[in-house]
Automatic annotation (TrEMBL):
It is found in: Cytoplasm. Involved in the gluconeogenesis. Catalyzes stereospecifically the conversion of dihydroxyacetone phosphate (DHAP) to D-glyceraldehyde-3-phosphate (G3P). Homodimer. Substrate binds at residues 9-11, 175, 215, 236-237. Transmembrane segments: none annotated. This is Triosephosphate isomerase. The active site is at 97 (electrophile), 169 (proton acceptor). It comes from Terrimonas ginsenosidimutans. Belongs to the triosephosphate isomerase family. Pathway: Carbohydrate degradation; glycolysis; D-glyceraldehyde 3-phosphate from glycerone phosphate: step 1/1; Carbohydrate biosynthesis; gluconeogenesis. Pfam families: TIM. It catalyses: D-glyceraldehyde 3-phosphate = dihydroxyacetone phosphate.
Amino acid sequence: MRKQIAAANWKMNLTFQQGEKLLDDILGANIDLADHQLVIFAVPSPYLLMTRSEVEEEKNYYTSAQNCYNKKSGAYTGEISAEMLHSINVPYCVIGHSERREYFNESNAVLAEKLNLCLENYITPIFCCGEPLSIREANTQNEFVAQQLKESLFHLSPEKIKDIVIAYEPIWAIGTGKTATTEQAQEMHAYLRSVLAAQYGQSISDQISILYGGSVKANNAKEIFGSPDVDGGLVGGASLVAADFIEIIKALKA
Ligand SMILES: O=C(CO)COP(=O)(O)O
């Protein structure tokens, strides 16, 4: 089975102490993950080392950065490179979250550069895509999201594309309490998989985990994750509450 992933995206929330307590509470639930199940915590940069040491001894629990810069190194005050993340053994990095695209003007071309730097540094990118409400209302979401993949991912070789995780996050569902319906999520995930299959072949496309993000909660995760092409979720708000995220982890396909 493809990897089934519950990924927490804390965004710019929680103090260090609150983050530490949240991790203790979640790990304290001692959820035994199957080989194909992963839990990933995408935490603010100052918490990466703490998170890494919290999850180090736990099977299939991992740390992720929320972003990295699209340059290798140099005079870019305040930025963090993929090489730096690798040097502290961070295995994942979220790339192209819609909040970064919107507030920091990250284009598909810039995101392609970030993906390359992550892969060169042995970091698995969690590549986010997804359409705004106006595109959904115009019913052109498939074309929109396919273009995001094409411009950011399709320069990658088949060997490299296998190493990435994709997260479909419709912007109108992020932080709004409004999820895509199970049908809408499955439909888009199946479409994304067909786009990947057309480019790379079915057997490669079948290996790529595609997560759903956008108002995943304790009470809807099981249903959303149950769809055949949904391989878990990238979770914002509900990942900040231990009891809720524990339920979301338990909702991964067995
Ligand atoms: O953006 C998200 C995860 O990256 C989703 O956020 P919410 O779960 O708060 O809607």
